[in-house]
Amino acid sequence: MNKFIVVVPFYNVEQWIKTCLSSAKKQTYKNFTCIVIDDISTDNSSLVVEKFIKDDDRFIFVKNTEKKYALRNIYDAILSANPSDEDIIVTLDGDDWFASEDVLNILNSYYNDENCYMTYGSYKEFPTNLIGRYAKQIPSNIINTNDYRNHEWCSSHLRSFKYKIWKRIDKQDLVDSSGQFYRMTWDLAIMFPMLEMCGNKAKYVKEILYIYNLNNPINDHKVDNTLQIKLEMEIRRKNKYNLL
Fold first, then answer.
1. At CA 123, angle to CA 98 and CA 127, rounded to 5?
2. What secondary structure letter does DSSP report for 10?
């Protein structure tokens, strides 16, 4: 039976965090741990979390004492979980939520039936209910030539991966030119290496698994789109990984 580790970093998501965690708590697949990390919120997010998860020992709550941003929070949470190689990591932003109660069941079927090492896709946007344009099947020619970094970005929510793939990522590929964990576009920083290592062992999930919340005013592309593009270019120029 696959074990899932759901990692939920958040900052100032008082309005949405209960919906996020409720979508995890309602999963019909029960073999999971959920690590929830407050990145020094200044609203009442932490109070909402503490009250909501207090009677469910599958949830682990971490309150940071220093600002880390999403990628370092994910990195530290995975490390603290001490996962086995076959454990499956799932990333879920604190202002977003799972699309249904069957998300982990669907993922479990993909890992069992497809013998895959990682998955990506699919999501809808809230409140438009439109299919997300950044979650598409990667073309076979890109997979066969290992040319993900020169192709349009299309490996978005929902992202999941086995720990044995994650642990092969060089930490230096998760930090920017100043040596700090990427504050933005961190999804590219983790996905490009794993896609390159996995090849056909990375599977696109056509079922809608994730709701991406466009209503949050501090989405990265709204805060500093110029920095976001700059960091994307930096990540794309990094050396690619070899197929395992």
1. 85
2. E
* Residue 42 is assigned to a structural domain of this protein: yes
Instruction: Round to whole Å and give the CA distance between 36 and 92.
Output: 10
Instruction: Please give the model's pTM, rounded to 2 decimal places.
Output: 0.96
pLDDT in tens, 50-86: 999 999 999 999 999 999 999 999 999 999 999 999 9
Domain of residue 194, residue span: 4-236
With bands split at pLDDT 50, 70 and 90, how would you rate the model's confidence at 221? very low
Is residue 243 assigned to a domain? no
Q: Which of 101, 72, 102 is nearest to 7 (CA)?
A: 72
Task: Give the closest residue to 153 by CA, choosing from 102, 187, 199, 200.
Answer: 187
* Vertex 144 angle, CA 153 and 110, to 5°: 70
